[in-house]
């Protein structure tokens, strides 16, 4: 089908992050051909060329997939062949090889000095519960530091109010 309006919007937002490495997955390749081979790829490159902020952003891997059939291939020929993959390993491997690992957040030295054991543990809480037998529990994304099973933590609201302490 080619790039849709939402594709252009998402790409525009993604390319604002210079460290982000783009990759293209052309989906629904198991459908009968309605466009010439290479035509969709050319359309995608044209969009990249008009939106890219650096030449590095014009270098991206292209994969061919069928979400419905559950496969992903590195070329259109491979995706359309009788011996096409039966899994999404090409997608996983491309993400692994293309996307850089996250850079750890370095906590402020004052926080590190006050929290030597957990290395400046910091977490954005997305859910707070009160579970029988456990007490207050928090779920979220760890931004810095580390914590081990059994360590006690303190959760505070945005206003700094103590919410509870738990394990």
Automatic annotation (TrEMBL):
SUPFAM superfamilies: P-loop containing nucleoside triphosphate hydrolases, Translation proteins. This is Tr-type G domain-containing protein. InterPro entries: P-loop_NTPase, T_Tr_GTP-bd_dom, Transl_B-barrel_sf. It comes from the Eukaryota. It comes from Strombidinopsis acuminata. One of its GO terms (molecular function) is GTPase activity. Pfam families: GTP_EFTU (PF00009). Gene3D superfamilies: P-loop containing nucleotide triphosphate hydrolases. Residues 1-79 form the Tr-type G domain.
